[in-house]
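From: lab user (bench 3)
To: helpdesk
Subject: output format question, protein + 45I

Hello, I'm new to running complex predictions and I'm not sure whether the block I got back is the full result or only part of it. Here's what I submitted:
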Amino acid sequence: ACTRKNRNDALHPLWQSPLTIPGGTRQSPINIQWRDSVYDPFLKPLKISYDPTTCLHIWNNGYSFLVEFDDSTDKSIIIGGPLENQYRLKQFHFHWGAINEWGSEHTVDSKFYPAELHLVHWNAIAYPTFEEAVMEGNGLAVIGVFLKLGAHHEGLQTLVDALPAIKHKDTVIEFDVFDPTCLIPSCPDYWTYAGSLTTPPLTESVTWIIKKKPIEVDENQLEAFRMLLFTSDGEEEKRMVDNFRPLQPLMNRTVRSSFQ
Ligand SMILES: NS(=O)(=O)c1ccc(C(=O)O)c(S(=O)(=O)NCCc2ccccc2)c1
Ligand SMILES: [Zn+2]
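Helpdesk reply: Thanks, we reran it on our side. This is the complete output you should expect:
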C-alpha cells in the first residue's frame, strides 16, 4: 500500500517549499495576538539611517518585486531596537493578495492586511557575507510594515511607476536614488520576535521587527502590484498575487512589544 505523505511534506504551491520545516521551532510568519504580546521596557527605539544613493535596481524575481541596495558598506543601516548591533540594508520587497481581504504574511489578532513590506538587513558585524548571515540565528533583521487601503502614498508611487517595466520574471531596471524611510511609519511602536525567512531556505535567522502602525496606499497602487507576473516573457501569463506564506505555529515563543 502506498504510504500517505504526511502534511509536513505538503508543498506550498507557490514556492514548492514545505509548508512546515521538520524540527522548525521558530518559523514565520505568525499571527500576533496583541493581548499576548509582552511589553519590554528594555527595548530601545529602532534607529534607521539609509543613504538613498545606495539604491541599485528594482527587479521581478518571480516571487515578488524587490529593490536592492549596495550593502558593501555601512551606509544604510539600522541599529537599536531588539538588535545587539547594526545591520545593513540589503533589499526590500512586498507580499500581497489577489484582493484587499488578504495579502500580508503576518496577521494582527488574526486580521490580514492587503499587503506587507519587508526590509531585509544582515549582521555584517558578526558575519562576512549575507549568505553566511542567512544561516545564523542572529544573522538577519527584517522590518515588517503593513499596508492598508486608504490615501494615495506619494513615496510608493515612485516604485509603482517603475512596475510596468518589470512586469515579467527576471526583468530589472536601474533605480538609482530611493529612500525607503518614506515607507516606514513615523510612529516608533513595534512588536519583535525570533523567526525565519518566509521563502526558501526558510532558515531560522530572522529577528522580526513588525511596525504597529500601517502605511496607507490607494486601490490603484495595490492594483499595480497585481499586474506583475510570476511568469517570464513568452510563457503563459500568471498574475503575481497571493505571494505570502501560510501562518506558522507560535510554539514556545513570546512576542514582545516596544509599547504599553
Ligand atoms: N519574506 S523574507 O523577508 O523572508 C524574504 C523574501 C525573499 C527574499 C529573497 O531572496 O528575495 C529574502 S532574502 O533576500 O533574505 N533572501 C533569502 C534567500 C537567499 C539566501 C541566500 C542567498 C540568496 C538568497 C527574504
Ligand atoms: Zn518577505
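A quick orientation on your result: The pocket of 45I (ligand 1) is lined by residues 61, 66, 91, 93, 118, 120, 131, 134, 142, 197-199, 201 (CB under 6 Å). Let us know if anything else is unclear.
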